[in-house]
Write a structure and sequence with these properties.
Layout lengths: L2 E4 L4 H12 L4 E4 L11 H6 L7 E4 L2 E4 L1 H11 L12 H30 L10 H22 L12 H14 L6 H4 L2 H10 L3 H9 L2
Parallel strand pairs: 1-2
Antiparallel strand pairs: 1-3, 3-4
Helix pairs in contact: 1-3, 1-6, 1-9, 4-5, 4-6, 5-8
């Protein structure tokens, strides 16, 4: 059964595509244009009642929220493709810990930067320089914690590439690209090495090629 992924042009769905490529799972994509409001049509809201991306359909199974989706596939296909969970319960605990850090500490200020720099004036967002300044300061503090962590281990959960690392890739590619704040990564030695590693994975290069 081929997994159907909605909204491949955007970062959160790319998180799902990246996981599917790492797990060697067949998929197809369905474009959804947020700017024109395709995510607010009755048909789409039947799949995702909040109008957000992504959604997957896997046969008669529908699931939304990108981190829930990647956890589902990493567990369902644990022995297929890249093991993104870790070999031990302790590995899995650390992976889940840093995945939660990404969701609750790293992502919110980065999302503010993306919205106010990349997507203003779309979605009714007016660029706010104070929000940009405060968000950069918050993100810098998080990256300082990452710098310390990554001085002690190759990846966030240890010596293996996990869901926690994977989950950072799509939005961080915005940070170093169109958001124009690559220096936030490059000025931190261990964060920079980690980013160079994870962003050069064949799976991410394949996702970028698919989503051109």
């Amino acid at each position: 059964m081929v997994v159907k992924v909605y909204g491949p042009a955007y970062a959160s769905p790319k998180r799902v595509l990246l996981c599917l490529v790492e797990k060697e799972i067949d998929f197809e994509t369905v474009p959804v244009d947020l700017i024109s409001g395709e995510n607010l049509t009755p048909e789409y809201l039947q799949l995702q009642p909040f109008g957000s991306l992504p959604v997957i359909q896997d046969g008669d199974y529908t699931l939304f929220e990108s981190r829930a989706i990647i956890r589902y596939y990493a567990e369902k296909y644990k022995t297929q493709g890249t093991d993104l969970l870790g070999k031990t319960l302790e590995d899995q605990g650390l992976g889940n810990q840093w995945l939660e850090v990404e969701a609750h500490n790293y992502h919110p200020p980065l999302l503010n930067l993306v919205l106010h720099i990349m997507f203003s004036p779309h979605f009714g967002i007016i660029r706010n320089e104070q929000v940009i300044k405060e968000s950069e300061e918050k993100l810098a503090k998080v990256l300082d914690v990452y710098e310390d962590r990554l001085s002690k281990s190759k990846y966030l959960a240890g010596d293996f590439f996990s869901l926690a690392d994977l989950s950072h890739i799509p939005f961080t590619s915005y940070l170093v690209g169109p958001v124009g704040k690559e220096y936030m990564i490059k000025e931190r030695k261990h964060v920079s090495a980690w980013w160079d590693d994870i962003s050069s994975r064949p799976s991410w290069l394949k996702v970028l090629e698919i989503c051109k």
